[in-house]
Amino acid sequence: MLIVKATITMSKTLNLEIIAEVVEHKKHVDFLKKQKCDIIQEFYLSKPLPVSKLKKFGNAGTDFD
Question: Do the Cβ atoms of 38 and 19 come closer than 8 Å?
Fold first, then answer.
């Protein structure tokens, strides 16, 4: 996690947007949020879905925070 933290810090210093992809575990999502990662593509909630299934998933009352 130390390398990830350093990379995020360096990217923020350079005013770059940080995107974390394929995040599969809640502890990693929590860490990335704490480090102020801009975008987190979370697989632990769901793998990529087609639009039709995404609408159903979003309407299920899932809390994305």
Answer: yes
